[in-house]
Amino acid sequence: MWAIRRACSSYKKQVFMNGASRICYTTSEISSQYLKGHNEGASNVISHRPLTFRGFQLKSHGLFIESRSFSSQAGTKSSGEEDSDSDDGFSELESSTATEAIEEANKVDESVSEQELSEEDLENVEAPQELELSDTETETEVSKRKSSRERVSSALYNAIVAAPALAVSKIMDKWVEGNDVTRAEVAAAMLTLRKRRMYGRALQLSEWLESKKQLTFTERDCASRVDLIAKVRGLKKAEDYVGIIPKSFRSEVIYRTLLANCVAEVDVKKSEQIFNKMKDLEFPLTCFACNQLLLLYKKTDKKKIADVLLLMEKENVKPSLFTYKTLIDAKGQCNDISGMEQIVETMKAEGIEPDINTRSIMAKHYISGGLNEKAENVLKEMEGGDLKENHWVCRSLLPLYAALGRADEVSRIWKVCEESNPRLDDCVAAVDAWGKLHNIEEAEAVFDKMTAKWPTLSSKHFSVLLRVYANHKMLSKGKDLVKRMADSGCRIGPLTWDALVRLYVEAGEVEKADSILHKAAEQNRLRPMINSYLVIMEQYAKRADVHNTEKMLHRMRQAGYVNRMSQYQCLIRAYINAKVPCYGIAERMKADNLFPNKGLANMFAQVDAFRKTPVSDLLD
Q1: 3-state SS class at 53
Q2: pLDDT tens readout for residues 388-406
Q3: 51 pairs with which residues across the strands?
Q4: Three-state SS for 17?
Q5: Where is the composition biased (Acidic residues) (predicted)?
Q6: Which of 106, 262, 298, 318 could bridge 271 with an S-S bond, Cβ 3.0-4.6 Å?
Q7: 64-to-26, 43, 283 alpha-carbon distances in Å
Q8: Rounded to 5 degrees, what are φ and ψ at 74?
């Protein structure tokens, strides 16, 4: 019996329609749990065509869910960051493959300051980390592969970053005069550029190699190009490139790469179209593709998760560690702790032990559910017998213990870090942890140690302390820190803009926050984070400022963000607070392929200009 079925004690029948034929399937309790109704945050983008694979149609339900959690990873949007050669990277469930409290515990290092990078290279922090294409790799294999990458030293990479003002094509034209362009050298350079999120430079390198015919392009090279184009120029350009790839190279790996980037952008319609395209091309259904759908629906429509599980069962697709992590996180987001634990037990029964990342997810949800004792037990398991031997776990433990309010444990773990020469990501986690514990003095002390040890910190690292100041409404200190960043030569990007916006919003200066965001979007080619827009939009809605709430929605669309249910909920609240009717809101949502749930329908009634009331009936 398939692994997911073992997690259930009963079965529930689901009926799926495919053309004229009516096919019945049994699904487990774990699937039916995802079909439970939710009162808040319902949303879905309905595709024009049913999501199918080999005749099996994923059902579209009448009620939909959107989770606005700040947790999870592969697809959460993620906030994956750059590594340094001297420090171990620590990747979590989503950071695509990303979602968001866990991601905050997972920030990784960079030794190259953003000052060294061109604006084109400073991608939106919500973009996914390097695409992982393997369905079967174990955690140990991934760790070994990533560790080997960190040891790679590339002379080509060094030449590229040494001249940030020059186009890569000019650098390469000079490079070939005295050096051979080997696949090994190019691979090492590409890996390092990706690791540092220098996607613009990596794309330029790929284009030069092809134009100069320095290497014979393979299927994987084309997949890499698709990924880079999607990150730098957007999904439309990436899809256009797929159309010109030689047909012999247009394999499943090409489309799965495009699918992963659509999911990272939370573009439900496009993701489902690509999935259907893969079906039309008769590619075998892979765990990777199913995991991408799970990530997508975890964020947008959790009830469709059950349909994906049924599809995996029908096609005999074995769930991976990543599959279980996604399901565990989805259950935790629904506050279904017993369901989360049931999936963990199923995972163990299948011979897959929870890794550190899985335990981090569990601990986070235990904390959110107020189950502090269970959370502490998980944290002790993560710590192992000797924390000094498992030093790399500190970066995860620090923010989790801070969320528990355990200042004593944070102090103990940070002491272990100090005794064993803390890495940059340890320091970042400590600053964040002390900030959550409202110990500003300790947070500043750790940050001072960071600046003393690593003089060329990037704006990402400054932003950690800036967020602490924002959360404590310390406007003056926040301003001083930003000046300090500028003096150090840091290039300010989306993370810093977001922290600045929150700093001014918390201080009650919403208009100033709006002005900062507007200037940042106008003067830079980088896209601000969507949360930067939302936090301002929510403030305008609270003030019943319909005009500015509408303006923020428009600016999000201009920035390339797809409208979601949360934006419309915020907009309708503005109209409700202003006590004015909202004309055509249902039609606007329909144009965005959004279907309201019961809660939002009730909000509609409050802003319906033509609704009937007892008083209006009397007057009529």
Answers
A1: strand
A2: 877 889 999 999 999 999 9
A3: 58
A4: strand
A5: 81-91, 111-124
A6: 262
A7: 22, 5, 29
A8: -60, -45
